[in-house]
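task queued by scheduler; priority normal; single chain, no ligands, no partner chains; default sampling; output format set to C-alpha cells
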Amino acid sequence: MRHENSLMHEVLKPMPWGAFDRLVEKHGADKRVRRLSTKSQFMALAHGQLSGAQSLRDIAARLSSQESRLYHLGAKAVKRSTLADANARRPAAVYVELFGIVAAQAQRGLRKATREAIRLVDASSLSLTSLSSDWAAYEAHGSGAKMHVVYDPDAHVPVHFAVTAARINDIVEGKALPIEAGVTYVFDLGFYDFGWWAQIDAKGARFVTRLKKNTRTTVVETRATPQDGPILADLVVTLPQRLARSRSNPMSRPLREVHVRIDTGKVLRVVCNDLDASAEAIADLYKKRWDIELFFRWVKQTLKIRHFLGTSENAVRTQIAIALIVYLLLRLAHAAQTEVPSLLTFTRLVSANLMHLRSIHDLAHRPSPPQRHHPNQLRLAIC
C-alpha cells in the first residue's frame, strides 16, 4: 500500500518525543512501572480523544481491536484498570509541561504576522461528580473545576492553561500568570482587580476589559466619536482614588473608557490603559473575547472534556492536558493540508479514519472500493 503508517501516526508527527522522554525522566513517571509506560498512557488517552471514546473501557476495547497497528505508534493495548491507576497516580505535571512545549511549537507554526500580540484570558467551568468532592467540592453548585486558559487569537491556540477547583476565584489564577511586555491582555469581569491591572500596566503591557455598572470614574477628557456608530462615548478617566477599607487604588493613572453598544442593544463600558489607540480599535479588541468562548465550546463538545474518565485531581488534570495537546496537534495537522478547510470536518474525518492507512492530505477523498469482477470474467481468468 502507498501509506505504511496509520492516520494517527501522521497526526502525532509534530510530537516532541525527545522532550517527552526528558519530562518522564524529570518527574520519575516511569519509575517502578511494569505494565504501562507513560508514553503508552499518553497514546491511549490521545487515541480516546481522537476517536471519541466515552470511557476507559471504550478506550481499552478500541485499542484491543487495533492491536496489530499500535506497534508503529510505540504503543500497546491496555486494560481498563491499569489505565485508571495510571491516570490517578502518574504525575500530571508531565503533560502540563508537555503542553507548554507543544503550545510554543504550534504558536510559532500557526501565528499570523501581526503588529501586536493579543492574549485572551478566561476560565470555563467543568462539572464533576460527587466522587471528586475531596478536592473540588463547591457548596453552591456541587463538585466542579475550572479550566483557566490564555489564548492566542491570531494562532487560534491556547498558550497557557491551569486547572483549579471551581470555588477558586478567576483573579487568583490570573495573578499567577507571567505578564509579557508589549502584549495586550483582554479579559472580562472575572478578573476585576485594580491591583492586577496596575501590575499589567507597570510591566509595559496593555489591558482591555470592562467596568462594572457601579464603578464611578472621573472624566478628565471627552473625545469626539462618529455619529450613528456603535461608539457612544470616548473618555479619558481616572478610577476612584480609594477602595474598600480606605485602601488607596494602585491603578491611579488615566485610562480610556469607551462606551459601545453591542448587537443586543446593551451598552458596555470598555476600559483600556492605551490613551492613543482609537475607540473603535479598543472596542474591537474587547470583541475578540468571543474567540476564546468559541474555543471553550469547541474543545468541550468535540474533545468531550465535559465527560471525565477519572475523579481525582491528578486524573482530571491529566485528561485536560492531553485533550489540549491533541487540539494543538489537530490544528497543526489541519494547517499542513489544504483539502479540508473546516477544522471540525477535518477532526471528524480523522476520528472516522484514525487507524486506517491514510494520509491527512487525501481525507477529502473516499478510498477506492475493491474492484468487482463479473462471474464470467472470473471463470475466464481461472481457465
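post-processing summary
- The first strand starts at residue 117 and ends at 127.
- Residues 373-383 have pLDDT under 50 and may be disordered.
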